[in-house]
Amino acid sequence: MKRYSAFAIAREALRHHSGWQRAWRSPEPKSRYDVVIVGAGGHGLATAYYLGRRFGIKNVAVIEKGWLGGGNTGRNTTIIRSNYLQDPSAAIYEKSRSLYETLSQELNYNIMFSPRGVIMLAQTHHEVRGYQRTAHANALQGVTTEFISPRRVKELVPIINIDGPRYPVLGGLWQARGGTARHDAVAWGYARACSDMGMDIIQQCEVTGIRQTDGKVTGVSTTRGEIGCDKLGLVVAGHSGVLADMAGFRLPVESVALQALVSEPIKPCMDVVVMANTVHGYMSQSDKGEMVIGGGADGYNNYTQRGSFHHIEETVRALIETFPMISRLKMLRQWGGIVDMTGDRSPILSRTPLDGCFINCGWGTGGFKAIPGSGYGMAELMAKGYSPLTDAFGLERFREGRFIDESVAAGVAH
Amino acid sequence: MLTLRCPVCGIDADETELSPGGEAHLTRFGPDASDDDFHDYLFTRENPRGVHFERWRHSYGCGKWFHAARCTVTLEVFGTYSAQTTEPPAGIRAVIAEKRPGWSWRGLS
């Protein structure tokens, strides 16, 4: 594979861009692989990438029923942060954030990581105490965050109204090294690197069954034939329950729609990410100038990839008080993604009752930020059978009462 | 917007008037239950792509709980029924069988 570089751009400019290669191959599935990953979203591709790059397993296929990165990877609001409360969460999200910092160089693919900083607004006294506690916890975990005053919030975000009658800004949890990245590029970059290692990425290939012998996985049945494997990784977010059903076990996961919307593009007005969890809204400005707004999740199970209208109204109504200038913006697009919610709002990276079958799901409303860390941990778990990053996130934690309760940090906004 | 008819007061209520209450017809295991039963009661939930039975509360109306049968893919509502039952009534099941032949949910069909 040819590397992307300034030199390559100059070379192609001189020959009418005739020399660019496809970023990844689209091969026919082979009959057998060492590892099959179901789900070519960010998490699945990252798992495959680290399996090959760090753990030496390159005979890998990633299969996807739709198109690469077409699920929640292409539907999220691209926020990256690691200011979680519990130690296992901080470990995996901070690993992820630190991998993001050098990911463009590592993959030779510009993922447009922009460490512009993330503020989580405290708009009630309860939140002030909660975020002060998180800041202290982060200090102990080695994650750099600080609790900042309303005045400092106003300096960082001049367009904010800190004296709102219903939702005054009382402070904020500031993570200067958080930010955003180009979500599609993360999937594309991993896919290109996986393909370069000889892995097969097979799109439009739906899994219809999981084959097993004596309690051990032997392969998958798909719409493009039978594919054998020694180890199987299920990394399919919202549809995890459907695949778990095929594998013969149940999950403590329910799927709901989470939605987001973007405005028309405007001139640069806000160069940080602002999250307002009290009002279920969060906003950043994309490089194109659109205001990217994330809203709340529906409270009931559904697979519609749309989301309810009244959640948009609630989100926008509340954000207008905090950001009065957006009241005249036209909204261009609205969409939804299916997020898989666990009881403690923390993910599941685990072995399963089916030997050789591993699952990575339950990222709920905040999976994008975790892609590199989750992929790394999942790859280590699948290659070695143990990973310090994922150990606390096993399926058995519910039975054993070892919840990783992030409902405050993760239940609402991302 | 999702609209459910409250079987208690008979009003067609928008989802803004209602509070979702999760999976219906759970068997409530207590302290004497096995670990597996208690774990499943507390944490494991049906998450079907299709027919689903749920509890809802008409919180900004009559305040009463009721049950609803719904499709999680199309949001089509098959019917609502009283909370005072441990399984969906035959009428609701007939409606579902007509619209979703071959449906099943937790051993029901």
Tell me the number of strands of chain B.
6
| Computed structural class of chain B | alpha+beta
Query: What best-fitting shape of chain B do the alpha-carbon axes yield?
Result: globular
Gyration radius over CA of chain B:
14 Å
Determine the fraction of residues in helical runs of chain B and give it as a percent range: 10-25%
- The overall pLDDT average of chain A reads 93
Distance between the termini of chain B: 28 Å
CATH architectural name of chain B: 2-Layer Sandwich
Major beta sheet summary of chain B: 4 strands, antiparallel
How far apart are the termini of chain A? 36 Å
Summarize the structure.
By secondary structure, chain A is α/β, with parallel strands linked by helices. In chain A, 30% of the residues lie in helices and 26% in strands.
Notes on the protein architecture:
The complex is a heterodimer of chains A (414) and B (109). By secondary structure, chain A is an alpha/beta fold. In chain A, 30% of the residues lie in helices and 26% in strands. Chain A has helices at residues 6-14, 42-53, 87-101, 103-107, 125-141, 150-156, 183-196, 240-247, 309-322, 371-384, 397-400, 407-410, and strands spanning 32-38, 60-63, 79-80, 118-122, 146-148, 171-175, 179-180, 200-202, 207-213, 216-222, 225-234, 253-265, 273-276, 281-285, 290-297, 331-342, 348-351, 357-361. In chain A, strands 1, 2, 8, 9, 10, 11, 17 and 18 form an eight-stranded mixed β-sheet that branches. An eight-stranded mixed β-sheet of chain A has the order 5-6-4-13-14-15-12-16. A two-stranded antiparallel sheet of chain A has the order 3-7. Chain A is globular and about 65 Å long. Chain B has 109 residues and is an alpha+beta fold. Chain B has one domain (3-99): Folate-binding fold (2-Layer Sandwich), CATH 3.30.2270.10. Chain B is 17% helix and 28% strand. Chain B has helices at residues 35-42, 90-99; strands at 3-5, 12-14, 19-23, 51-57, 65-71, 77-82. A four-stranded antiparallel β-sheet of chain B has the order 3-4-5-6. In chain B, strand 4 and strand 5 (65-71) form a beta hairpin. The radius of gyration of chain B is 14 Å and the shape is globular. The interface between A and B is medium-sized, with 21 and 24 residues.
